[in-house]
Amino acid sequence: MNIFTHLGISRGIMAVIERNLGIKLDGVGFVLGNIKPDIDPKLSSVPHLKNTVMDYVSSEIKSLLSMEDKIKNRCTREFSERLGLITHYLSDFFCYAHSEYFKGNILKHCIYESKLSKYCRKNKVAAAENIKKRITYIDTDLVSILRYIDNMHNEYLNAGNKASCKRDMKYTMEMAASFCISVIKSYISEEINTAA
To answer: Which of 79, 113, 127, 175 has its CA 20 to 30 A from that of 14?
Structure first.
């Protein structure tokens, strides 16, 4: 996915989080995290394919889950940026141009990502409305999250081996929203239990 698609996804996910949980992420941090893997030379030099970056993503999820006191009325910048960074990779896992089915060169990769970006802009309202029905609450231990990612990715791959912007956005938004909302809900629950 290109930066413009990641920007659209980040704005959509922030809106879903605020609507569902009443929590505002640090917008700058979350957006920066969502584009960082494409603008940081260390992160952009490694292809964003599930099989090449999953160990890194797993370690980032583990670090995110071990952060303390990051949710109040608003999420901290550090938490939001790390959540955004993970969201970036999860989104790329559900992009045809980053899948094992894609056999094109870098030009075809960029052309597909451009089409996906256009699709995202034209269908952002429908995507946001549709995601309400598709949020899955994931147990927020590392094993459960990784299992959910694997199951969703297998389902995505089994849904078809041809390019489909609609399928990419459906799975991307479901994965990203489910992950973010589940992690934030677990922090809210921990704070309530700690305060009691």
So the answer is: 113
